[in-house]
Amino acid sequence: MTEKNIKPPGRYSDESGLPPQMSRIQDFWHQLRENTLALWGLILLILFFIIAIAGTKLTLGKNPIMDPEQVRLVDTLKPPLSKANRQVLAPEDRPLFGIYLLGTDKLGRDVLARTLQGAHVSLLVGFISVGISVLIGIILGALAGYYGGYVDSVIMRAVDIMLCFPSFFLILTIVALLPASIWNIMVVIGLTSWPGIARFVRAEFLALRKQDFVVAAEALGLSKCKIMFEHMVPNALAPILVSATIGVASAILTESGLSFLGFGVPPPDASWGNILADGKEFIFDAPWLFIVSGTAILLTVLAFNLFGEGLRDALNPKLREQ
Amino acid sequence: MVGNEQVILEVKGLKTYFRTSHGEVRAVDGVDLSLSQGKTLGLIGESGCGKTVTSLSIMQLIKSPPGKIAGGQIQFQGRDLIRLSERELQQIRGNSIGMIFQEPMTSLNPVFTIGDQIMEPLMIHRKTSRAEAKEFTLELLYKVGIPMPEMRINEYPHQMSGGMKQRVMIGMAIACGPKVLIADEPTTALDVTMQAQIINLLYDLQKEMGMSILLITHDLGVIAEMAHQVAVMYASKVVEYASVEKLFEQPLHPYTIGLFESLPNLGDRERKLQAIRGQVPNPLNFPTGCKFWPRCPYADQKCRELEPALESIDSGRLVACWRVIDKSSNQPVYNPGKGDRERSDRAQVAESASATGALMEIKELKKFFSVKRNFWGRTQAWLKAVDGVSLSIKEGETLGLVGESGCGKTTVGRTILRLIDATQGDVFFEGASIFSLKSSSLRRMRQKMQIIFQDPYSSLNPRMTVGNIVGEALTTHGIAKGRERKELVENLFAKVGLSPSYIKRYPHEFSGGQRQRIGIARALALNPKFIVCDEVVSALDVSIQAQIMNLLEKLQEENHLSYLFIAHNLAVVEYICNHIAVMYLGQIVEQLPARELVKNAIHPYTRGLLYSNPVSNPSLRGRAALLKGDVPSPIHLPPGCRFHPRCAYAEEKCRKKEPELVKREKDHWVRCWVC
After folding, report:
1. A9 chain-B contacts, CB cut-off 8 A
2. Cα–Cα distance between B622 and B225 in angstroms, integer?
3. Would the CB atoms of A16 and B281 count as touching at under 8 Å?
4. Domain A37-60+113-321: which topology?
5. With the C-alpha atoms ordered B91, B92, B98, B104, is the resulting torsion angle positive or negative?
6. pLDDT tens digit string along B59-116?
7. pTM of the model
8. B456 CA: distance to closest CA in chain A (Å)
9. Which residues does A86 contact at the CB level (< 8 Å), separation at least 6?
10. What stretch of H or E contains B568?
11. Domain map (residue ranges) of chain A
12. Other beta carbons within 10 Å of B320
């Protein structure tokens, strides 16, 4: 070589540089946007959240703007958009703007106010009970998948036993024995719906257990707890997230079912299930009662399911490559 | 492209582009190839250079969208394959052009017997009856070297080994007597012994049937063994084209030279590997001018601005390099002798350092896995993965562990680090028994012993930033936190040749070689004394492989590290190790200093491995593979010497009594009755 190199050799192997960093959220958003149905699900969900939060503000407290418990015996079973009886009702007893936007029930309570209150109940039930079941599912599934052997056998047999019971009737039995309260319902739904999640987590852990990065973490001397919950759980999160979203939908459905049967949220608190139950006696005389609450349940559950499926596609690296 | 043979397949100006969300990828950008009757054209290059896309384009198997063939011609038997209808193409695929893929495991359908899978194309293309097809299939299986075809024809893919499956794939590809066989990395997923068998098989089949073969590979050894003409691909284009003899005698393009200089050769361990710096550019972001200039030591202003086209140098040689075309004074030279002194000095330093005591002592290590249990959970059959292995590794030394896959190499590596619990035996590290350590003291001991893995993709947690991956253990062991830790991590990155500015990124943003560097940085973080390198370079391209091997050597010198280097590639092990232990079915069969490997190895298995290793010298091709068949299952071990069913020298005694590992000379141990 007579000439010196024109370009000095770079210090690092990656002198050609990496493309600019694309954050995970950008990437995820990019994937989700492709799926129209999931996007609709997401829009409905955001709407639902806004309604539920606004509903809490409007209907709770001592002197709420819209009182879901105000009984007006002069205005029973009024159809939607009918005006309140100004002669009899005191101003503080009248609905907002003096109009029953979604009608009234057999006690003259404002269906709109009750539906708003119900949204908040449904949201609470969905998230807290799924939170409980995800927590139990992750811990038990992780233990079973990581340790294998006896631990795995014991946990998985427990799962099998849980799955043997028709869960709705199990919940029904427990709720019948416990005092009626929305918190009891959440806990009971949470305690009975973890087996599916535990199975998901276990399956993910069995696959992850063989990956070299888990072996590497062990070789570095990290504690088992750290390996399981800091290294492996984040990698198993995608299917958990998906099943949790769909779990929220089914918890909402279960709560509605319980309330419909009279085992759910105790009166005078409203939930979509007991509005529906009240409406069944007047199905021909006051159809708005079941139409409003039924549609609310339908749309919410549908939104969660659609969004859950979109999430699954967006989080699945195999589908992402295509 | 010049030649008097009849050209059977000609590719002219082929362009295949892919539409991605980041822009258009020109995977193949103006490639010319011509394949002569009865000859083999080798297509070589690193991954990401467009070799496979070229072969898929020839078969018209590019999925559209996102891919499309943007230009060019593919002339085969007087027709342009690009203009044919799907129906006409079906007549050609599998009939006049056959194809074999790299991964025999996934290329066969697991729910059909192999007989059905071979018979299917016969009945479609040749319209033969079932009985005729079956007879022909038996003949084919016999031809591709499958023992007892009558039995095997009814087996399912999972019942066969990788090599057998690849034979079946070849049988399927040649079933209709194709004129052209496209072999896409046909031996990459196989062991060297199986690779040698498959190369011989393809060679014989070609002679017998007069097929032309388009051989795609990244392995110069395979090219030397099989090809007649060679096209070197780099960054979507052919950069050099020559006959195999001329190419191996004097490569011209700097990239080809770089490939040769980064490849370790058996019996040539004194030569220091010259790695090509950097990596294959991303097709979305090709450099202007010659695409190789950022990695080329000879590049000048012209190379950066103008892209050279393939030009004829002398008869039948084409090169795309300004330096060669212009006959400039600074022509790229292939100088295999470069760097000798430096390397042999280093080797001596290591060998004198190894005079001190053993750092790690492995004694009669055994690891059995139970594979069959009865109703009560009692084990009925054992898989003896490791069966009485004793080794000792000195400070600053590299001990190589070689053998075919399934010999228990990886199990040894993981057991001595107590990542798997041993069945029997003991391991002493600095005089202390590792197996009797309690979990807290074991965790402290782990700081001194680390491991680097084969697969750069599964060895890094995809949900953590690379900085956290490397630095995590520092926090756990209370060595450094916060700012201090960040500085240490940045130093580690610089040490393994990565820019410290990347510590906030995620593993998926890096290439294979860079990920392997991150894995090394992670292992180095705790400042260990001993590292198990488990096939660390097997998954990498030649040029990256040389970079990593040089890096490992540099780190060994700087940090006085000892390595247990597990690999199946003898040339790599010979190059990097001081001592070599050859493993077969859970036992060490021969152990000797690396510099004596080629001359003095005597065990028939070691010799077989040496013979199977492809030699980068086309004039030596066509040697018979010494090792026949597959590694037997470690569940049903052969009686007597474990190697006797595959050994050409086996005697009566070998079948009855198991030999011991006996010292023959200083540092040379052999387990064999006859040699």
Report:
1. 277, 297
2. 7
3. yes
4. MetI-like fold (1.10.3720)
5. negative
6. 888 887 788 888 888 998 888 888 888 888 888 887 889 888 877 777 788 888 888 8
7. 0.82
8. 9
9. A94, A98
10. none
11. 37-60+113-321
12. 24
